[in-house]
Design goal:
With about 280 residues, the protein is an alpha+beta fold. About 40% of the residues are buried. The protein contains 7 helices and 9 strands; from the N terminus they run E-H-E-E-H-H-E-E-H-E-E-E-H-H-E-H. The chain is about 30% helix and about 20% strand. The chain is globular. It has 2 domains: about 100 residues, Pseudouridine synthase I, catalytic domain, N-terminal subdomain (Alpha-Beta Plaits), CATH 3.30.70; about 160 residues, Pseudouridine synthase I, catalytic domain, C-terminal subdomain (Alpha-Beta Plaits, 2-Layer Sandwich). Strands 1, 2, 3, 4, 5, 6, 7, 8 and 9 form a 9-stranded mixed beta sheet that branches. The two termini are about 20 Å apart.
C-alpha cells in the first residue's frame, strides 16, 4: 500500500479516463515501465475529481512476488517517483496483508478553502459558519448535498466539521472528517456554507434540506479548486505525514474587488500547491 500526493491542476481526476492524464493512469504507466504491472493489480482508496488536490491518497499495488520479496520501502518509493509525472509523488510504501482493502479506510479528512468561491463575503461571520458546520456533524441523509449514483446509501456519519480559521479569527474555509463520503458531498456542503455566509441561503434552508431529503433541493456545487483531500487514516499503513491542520495565517487575504479576486484566484492555487510541496518535502528530505 502506498501513499501518493498530487496537485489537482496536473491531473484530470484520479480515475482512469481515455485520452486525459489521471493519477491512476499515471501510476499504471509507471508500473508498466517498471514491468511490475499485472491486470487488476492497482486500486485507489478515494476517487477525486479534476482540480482536487491531495496531500495524500492511498493505493494498493499487488506487486510481482519477486519484486515484493526483494524490494524495500525506500526502493519502491524511489522507483515509482522516477516514473511518475511532475505533480505526483509517492510518500510511503508498506507491505500489507493479502486481505487488506484499501477502500476500507478508518477516516478521510478534507479541507475546503471557502475563499475560492466567488460569492464568499469579505467579512464572513465566524459564528454563522460554526453553526452551519455543527448542523453537518452526525449521522444524516445527504441526498440533497451529494450526487447519488448506483443506488448508493445516502446516509453518512460526519465525525467532525469545523471552521478553518486563521490566527486573527478570519474564517478561510472548513475541515470535515468522515469514514466515507458521497460523490460531490464536500463541494455541495461548501456551496451551502458559502450561500449561508453570503446571504443567498439561510441556516433553516440547510436544516430543511437535511431533515427532508425526500424533497429535492439544489444548494449548488462549489468549484473543485478549493478542495484538498488532506489525509486518510487506514489500519494497515502509518500516516506518512504529521497530524494536524495547517495554520492559514500565511495564506493571502482575498481581495474585495471582483477584478482583483479573479487574479487572486490564480494565486490561491499556487498557495495550496506550495503548502502541499512543503508537506511532501518534509517527508522525503
Amino acid at each position: 500500500m502506498v501513499a501518493v500526493g498530487y496537485h489537482g491542476h496536473a491531473f484530470h481526476g484520479s480515475q482512469i479516463q481515455p485520452d486525459v492524464r489521471t493519477v491512476e493512469g499515471s501510476i499504471s504507466n509507471a508500473l508498466q515501465r517498471l514491468t511490475w504491472w499485472t491486470e487488476g493489480c492497482l486500486e485507489m482508496s478515494s476517487r477525486t475529481d479534476a482540480g482536487v488536490s491531495v496531500r495524500f491518497n492511498l493505493a494498493r499495488i499487488d506487486l510481482p512476488r519477486t519484486v515484493s520479496k526483494q524490494a524495500n520501502e525506500s526502493s519502491i518509493i524511489r522507483a515509482l517517483n522516477d516514473h511518475l509525472p511532475v505533480g505526483a509523488v509517492v510518500l510511503s510504501a508498506s507491505k500489507v496483508p493479502d486481505e487488506s482493502k484499501v477502500r476500507y479506510a478508518d477516516s478521510r479528512k478534507y479541507l475546503y478553502r471557502l475563499e475560492c468561491i466567488e460569492e464568499w463575503p469579505s467579512l464572513p461571520d465566524p459564528d454563522l459558519l460554526s453553526s452551519a458546520c455543527q448542523m453537518i456533524e452526525g449521522k444524516h441523509d445527504f441526498s440533497n448535498l451529494s450526487k447519488i449514483e448506483d443506488d448508493r446509501d445516502p446516509i453518512r456519519t460526519v465525525d467532525e466539521c469545523r471552521p478553518w480559521v486563521s490566527g486573527d479569527g478570519r474564517p478561510v474555509g472548513f475541515v470535515i472528517c468522515a469514514k466515507s463520503f458521497l460523490w460531490n458531498q464536500v463541494r455541495r456542503i461548501a456551496s451551502a456554507f458559502s450561500g449561508i455566509s453570503s446571504g443567498r441561503l439561510e441556516l433553516m434552508d440547510l436544516d430543511l434540506a437535511m431533515r427532508k431529503p425526500e424533497i429535492p433541493v439544489d444548494m449548488g456545487r462549489a468549484p473543485s479548486e478549493g478542495l484538498v483531500l488532506w489525509e486518510i487514516s487506514h489500519l494497515d499503513i502509518a500516516n506518512p505525514l504529521p497530524n494536524g491542520i495547517p495554520e492559514p495565517s500565511n495564506l493571502s487575504t482575498r481581495p474585495e474587488d471582483p477584478r482583483e479576486y479573479r487574479r487572486w484566484l490564480s494565486m490561491s492555487g499556487y498557495e495550496i500547491s506550495t503548502l502541499l510541496e512543503n508537506e511532501w518535502r518534509s517527508r522525503l528530505n
